[in-house]
Amino acid sequence: SIVELLPDGRLRYVMMKHDTVVSSVRCSGGGLLGPAEGSVTVLYPGGKLKLCYLAGDQVVQGVPCASGGLWKATVGHDQAVEFYENGKLKSCRLSQDFGNHKRGDAFLQLP
Predict the structure, then answer these.
(1) Pick from 49, 68, 61: nearest CA to 106
(2) What distances in angstroms separate CA 45 from CA 8, 13, 48, 50, 104, one per listed residue?
(3) 81 DSSP assignment
């Protein structure tokens, strides 16, 4: 895995070698070329999950969220799953219709 630290020693982000479960969510890891090809996972200073790209579609806190990757996200095709610091789901791209939202829509909920 690749760990990037801020100048003060706090964690900036992690690029994991393999898909890894973090806070009950399976986050995407590296590809054939190793962790540098993988997606970024970001934690809050307290260690709670802030952002990751899902390794496959998953239901996250009752919401059907789509898998994603860093490289596709840079051209606007994927969206990371984001969480509030209290652990509540903040946003994701939907993997299927959900409530009034359609598959592929960006889903956002207030804290």
Answers:
(1) 68
(2) 12, 11, 7, 9, 31
(3) E
Mean pLDDT across the chain, nearest whole number? 87
Which amino acid would we find at residue 8? D
The rounded distance, in Å, linking the Cα atoms of 16 and 1 is 4
Return the half-sphere exposure (C-beta side, CA atoms, 13 A cut-off) of residue 33. Answer: 4
- List the one residue out of 73, 71, 90, 72 whose CA is nearest residue 23: 90
The answer on pLDDT for 93 being more than 70 is: yes
Q: Which residues, other chains included, contact 50 with Cβ-Cβ below 8 Å and sequence gap of 6+?
A: 42, 43, 44, 82, 83, 85
Q: Facing residues of 81 across strands?
A: 52
pLDDT reported for residue 77: 53
